[in-house]
Amino acid sequence: MSLAILHWESADNHSYHFKIDIGTNEYYQFKIGKQIITRAGIQWVDDISKVTPFQRKKKLTFLGDSEEEVTLPKKYFDRENCLVQLCSAKDSNGRAPAVSKVIRIPVAMQQINTMHFNLSSSASTMMDTTDFNPVRNITAEQQSLSQQTSVEDILGGLVRAVLPAAISYLNPQTTTAAPGSGASGNNSNTNMLTNLLGAVLRAVAPSIPGFSGQQSISYAADSDNRFGNYSDDLPGNNQFSKPFVFGIDDALLASMAGPIIQQGLQLLPQLINAANQHKLQTLQANNQLMSTLAGDVQRRMMMQQLMQNQPAAGGTPNINPAVLAQLLAQLQNAQPQPAPAPAPAAAAQSLSLDNSVYSLSNGVILTFESLKLTPHNGKDVLLLQQSDKIIFKIKLNVSSSPKNPLPRAIYTFYFKDPATKQLLLEKTFRKKDIVANTIMEFEFLKNEISSIPLNRNIEIFAEMRWKTSGEKVYKAIGNTTAVFVQRYFVQSQGDAVSGEKELTDMKVYRSFWNKVWQSPSLGKSKSLWELNVDARYTVSLSADHTANGITPTKLSIDEKDKESLTDTTSGRMKAGIELSITELNKLLGGWDGNTPLENEQLSAIRNTGFAKSNTAEMIYNIKLRGRTYEQGMVWVVPVFRLFEITLGKVESLSPEGYVNQTTNTKVKFPLPVSVRILGLKSNNQ
Question: Where are the domains of the chain?
């Protein structure tokens, strides 16, 4: 049987060690080159720089084990000529040839000696003066790869989808029709209904497993070729039809659900207010839970302190009465206070801050007006600075304006961090004589917003409550998303602008190296060890920490064969590394002509949105085996490339305090693009 199997094993200071298996063939040679080409479905090394002469294998008798170890000098390889292929034959003339897969010798392997784990030779990135912080140990839960879509996210997408249609419904005068044409107005209403339902379904569909949108192709019925080319001027041309939703064409949506949609239009304001109210109640419930937990912890600590002062069995009480009285007073103050009973709405004489009795309005929508949106992390959002003041303009959208203004109303603003579910700021305004469909201004001073975190998505809710002549309290809620920035902020991330860089010097880059496995001590019961696992490795970025974090390796091991002479570790492996953006900035000096970013620009990149967009994972089958006297290790090291990052620089603010004029600055920043898996094995007995 003719074979040509090639495996890289290890390296020393001068040579690479391979395991080969050529079956019943007796001769073999190596070809080293720069490129790979495919002929007849087989990959061949091309642009060859070195061909070794045919050598005869040592094991001439085939007894089921034809594998043997060979070496190649390191001088045969360089950065470009790093591809090697094994060729076997029956004789030295190349009869009955067989070829192996092409193996790439990475640059990291050319720089290190794995025979005795001497992993600290010269690096391809020279940064002898750079000091990296010690690595942190983190849990897999702390290193998040992706987050499941929450109900709040679905509701937010739904509100954004239906808000324009809802405002158009409340203000029909904004949609004009041809004079004297009743059918035109009807078609306009039908189109609005169709677009509305399509928008609602598309907002919800991506969050429902198993559903996805699709496109169909329409073509002439009398044609045998659905992919034929037709003139754009002819009827029945080949073109894309409107997108389908759940397999239903948009043209059928209005006719199929006309009465439901018409009734739904009337409920749109209440739907929007209910969605925003749900998001707001989730925030308030989370804050109440945290307050309750904090109170429970405080009470538990005080009770422990009280118990520690109890006398031993049979002893005499020695509690200081003054200390006991103080503890009891603190315990009483820490007890949760019962919520005040809401007063009946009919008995209330004026609008109060009590938020327990209300009804969501089905005819009023609050909107943030005159917002200046700017690209941030690839999305258009409202950018704010912690300047002297910020003014929000809130419009009260009503279907029919009442004759008299609303006597009084209470506006409450909530600033929420959606990632942590934390309430950052709450402020209440009392307004009088509110005119419908007009804009009111609300001012926030610098000392009120100074504690809001930078470079994070912040949800801002505007809640309005008012009382009718019938003593009934109504509520409407609007919201928007904003990001507080300093002088610089990330506008967008571009493509890679450099080649790959490997951190081969373990002494310098120890915090980037992650040892995910080490061979076990077998004793005398086993003579061989083997690793065969499907490894899942996660690489994420951290905006908050100044040191890299390593997640410990988790193994799900299959049952071992107790009778076998090989201790086999098979199953699944999970590990990862969390790279600090601060530490990544120090790598910039490893590329010629680049220096680490100054703190002001680095602060812009060090944000959670940028970090989450550069999180990825790798799945790879790792195999390694050895004898009792050999030690084996598996290391994982990230590989980096420079990417172009477009930073926005704030030049001016609008009168409301929004970021108005910006200029662009392009910088380069190293980001992980792959990982190098190093399966190392020692030969020292």
Answer: 2-104, 359-485, 493-681
The pLDDT value given to residue 156: 58
Tokens of residue 322, six digits = 């003054």
Nearest to 580 by CA among 677, 512, 489: 512
Q: Report the pLDDT value the prediction gives residue 99, as an integer from 0 to 100.
A: 92
Burial class (CB in 10 A: 0-12, 13-18, 19+), 159: buried
Q: What is the CATH number of domain 359-485?
A: 2.60.40.10
CA distances from 551 to 507, 514, 579, 587 (A): 20, 9, 11, 22
User: The tokens 């890679």 sit on which residue?
Assistant: 496
Q: Is 465 left (phi over 0), alpha (psi -120 to 50) or beta?
A: beta
List of residues 6+ apart from 524 with CB closer than 8 A: none
Element of type H or E holding 600: helix 599-605
Which tokens hold the place of 260?
């439901």
Structure letter (DSSP) for residue 260:
H
Residue 488's nearest CA partner among 582, 597, 643, 614 is 597
Cα–Cα–Cα angle for 582, 588, 589, rounded to 5 degrees = 120
- The H or E element that residue 327 is part of is helix 321-334
Same fold, 2-104 and 359-485: yes
Residue 65 φ then ψ, to 5°: -125, 95
Query: Cα angle at 362 between 356 and 367, to 5 degrees?
Result: 90
Structure tokens of 422? 């934390």
Contact between 57 and 28 (Cβ < 8 Å): yes
List pLDDT tens digits, range 411-436: 999 999 888 888 899 999 999 999 98
Report pLDDT for 350: 54
Model's pTM, two decimal places? 0.59
Q: Which of 669, 658, 525 is nearest to 589 (CA)?
A: 669
pLDDT at position 600: 92
| In the block, residue with structure tokens 């009470």 | 299
**69 phi/psi in degrees, rounded to 5:** -100, 135
**The pLDDT value given to residue 16:** 85
User: Which element (helix H / strand E) includes 9?
Assistant: strand 2-11
Distances (CA, A) of 433 to 114, 380, 533: 80, 34, 71
Query: What single letter denotes the amino acid at residue 364?
Result: V
The DSSP symbol for 272 reads H
Fold of 2-104: Immunoglobulin-like (2.60.40)
